[in-house]
Design goal:
Shape: globular
Largest sheet: 7 strands, mixed
Distance between the termini: 42 Å
Oligomer: single chain
Number of helices: 13
Strand order of the largest sheet: 14-15-18-13-21-19-20
Strand content: 15-25%
Number of strands: 23
Radius of gyration: 24 Å
Helix content: 25-40%
């Protein structure tokens, strides 16, 4: 097949214009075009006066070799790469007959889901341990915090089937290097589970929370149909390690589970499990992460600033943004997890703490846009070993609980008052979306002084890129602390822990991913490593 890139058409082009554009680009008659498929469709928001869709198209034609030779000097006409997924192994007979221990996956967020799915597709019949509940039960518990100020520490935005990504914008794009097209495998499995077909080709695909719920259930059933098990409400509380080899997992309220291949797809908030791993001697190290606030603007303001006369175009949808500012004090401030037409959500997983996150549905049609405005920090800011970042997070989350009034309301402040250094007393044109509610206060005490200083400098700087960004009525809500894991469970080239054989740190919690797509990709890579190790072990 042939791939054409940078094929530009007007935003409002007719459906048949794409085929016409292909024929014109290659200078061939219609009878020579056998078939074509859109691989990617994007647009350049920086050119907001003459927006056009930019296509990458894979196609089958007659006389393919002749055409490729004709365009040999054109970088935008090349052979299509093989983006199909190829399994690296098939489960050995010892797994099928029950003579060998099955692999165990701890955590059923995006990383754990894809690790378990690929292992199941290869015949390994994985056992998944998920401390939380099935996704629909979990959704009810999450609403308990949002609507009734009642937190369930084991069933919330962080814990349960689908992981933290379930209550998010459902973004399916990433900047990771993916030479083997594992991301394509993730996208294809999501479409198979009910995601809209367009996520195959739009430049910034997203799904939204409501659609993710049903998709997660379908993938779970596929794993079960292939011989896997999903054990909900089973929390790993300890690890049996002998001669630097994992041999079992200790489960709260259940018998120990023997295992020699354990995937740690924990997510970034499994703080008690991190502590158990540290106690068991598993090597880990502190890593940089970021802290800050959520900011809310009218989505119409963002649309106008980013899309100009094309704001409101249904083909483009709600506009997003990505911003960064390097402050004079040496700190970097950047937008994180921007959710167009979404809401700010309560994301705490421990009692008497407040954490914020962003979420949106597939339609992205809520009134406000929101994003994290966060400041990068390093282990030098929280010395004390690999678990010190967790205590740093807890201190900020406890302070936010206190500033919010001690009832899971979040502390908030208008941008104008934040820049002026005075407490807010009433909302203006922007009403916050966070539930259970926002308690107006002064956020100066919610973060370290260096972070407050950097954000105060960044907001007016962002105004130069997005007109209205520092509007006085925009709302800041605190605190955003779970941007990524505060530690890394370091692994080697074989994807196993540096010092414990059979332990496979994976995904966001282990410090190797940052979002649904990258976590899913990491889950696939680790599943392959587990499968290959079974054969190496058998041969040895």
């Amino acid at each position: 097949m042939i791939r054409i890139t940078e094929l530009r058409l007007p935003i409002d082009h007719a459906p048949e214009a794409l085929e016409a554009g292909i024929l014109k680009r290659l200078n061939i008659p219609a009878k020579d075009l056998i078939s074509f498929e859109v691989f990617k469709r994007s647009y350049d928001a920086r050119k907001n006066v003459a927006l056009a869709f930019i296509y990458t198209v894979d196609l089958s034609v007659r006389n393919e070799e002749k055409i490729l030779k004709q365009f040999s000097n054109d970088i935008h006409v090349r052979p299509s790469p093989d983006t199909s997924y190829h399994f690296v192994a098939k489960a050995p007979e010892s797994i099928i007959t029950g003579k060998a221990l099955r692999p165990v996956v701890i955590g059923f967020g995006p990383c754990g889901i894809f690790a378990a799915l690929v292992l199941a597709q290869m015949g390994f019949k994985p056992i998944v341990l998920e401390r939380g509940k099935q996704v629909r039960e979990r959704t009810q518990d999450t609403w308990g915090l949002w609507r009734k100020n009642i937190l369930n520490p084991e069933s919330n935005v962080q814990f349960g089937e689908g992981g933290a990504g379930t209550f998010s914008d459902g973004k399916l794009y990433s900047q990771i290097k993916d030479p083997k097209f594992y991301g394509r495998k993730v996208i294809q499995e999501f479409v198979k589970a009910g995601a809209p077909e367009e996520i195959r080709y739009v430049a910034k695909p997203h799904i939204g929370t409501f659609r993710l719920v049903g998709m997660v259930e379908k993938i779970r059933q596929q794993i079960i149909d292939l011989g896997g098990e999903i054990r909900f409400s089973q929390k790993g509380i300890g690890f049996d390690i002998q001669n630097d080899q994992i041999v079992g997992v200790k489960i709260e309220g259940h018998p120990d589970l023997p295992a020699r291949h354990v995937v740690l797809a924990l997510g970034h908030s499994a703080r008690d499990t991190f502590a158990a791993l540290h106690e068991a001697g598993v090597y880990m190290e502190a890593k940089p992460f970021s802290v800050g606030f959520r900011i809310e603007h009218p989505q119409s303001l963002i649309d106008k600033a980013r899309l100009g006369p094309h704001a409101g175009n249904e083909l483009i949808g709600a506009a997003d943004y990505k911003l960064v500012h390097h402050a004079k004090n040496g700190r970097s401030v950047y937008s994180f997890c921007m959710c167009p037409g979404g809401t700010v959500v309560a994301a705490a997983s421990e009692p008497n703490r407040v954490v914020t996150n962003g979420m949106s549905q597939y339609s992205r049609n809520e009134r406000n846009a929101n994003a994290g405005i966060v400041v990068g920090i390093t282990p030098e800011d929280y010395p004390g070993g690999p678990l010190a970042g967790i205590e740093f997070q807890r201190t900020l989350e406890s302070k936010a609980f206190e500033l919010g009034g001690g009832n899971y309301e979040a502390p908030g402040q208008l941008v104008g008052d934040f820049l002026a250094g005075k407490a807010s007393t009433e909302f203006g044109a922007v009403l916050p979306s966070y539930k259970p509610g926002v308690h107006l206060t002064n956020l100066a005490d919610a973060l370290p002084s260096y972070a407050i200083e950097a954000i105060r400098e960044a907001l007016p700087a962002f105004e130069k890129q997005i007109k209205g960004f520092s509007m006085k009525d925009a709302v800041l809500t605190g605190v955003e602390t779970r941007t990524s894991s505060p530690l890394r469970i370091t692994r080697g080239p074989n994807f196993q822990s540096l010092n414990i054989k059979g332990l496979y740190p994976a995904g966001e919690g282990a410090g190797y991913a940052g979002g649904i797509l990258s976590a899913g990709v990491d889950g696939i890579k680790v599943a392959e490593a587990v499968a290959l190790d079974y054969f190496e072990s058998n041969h040895n």
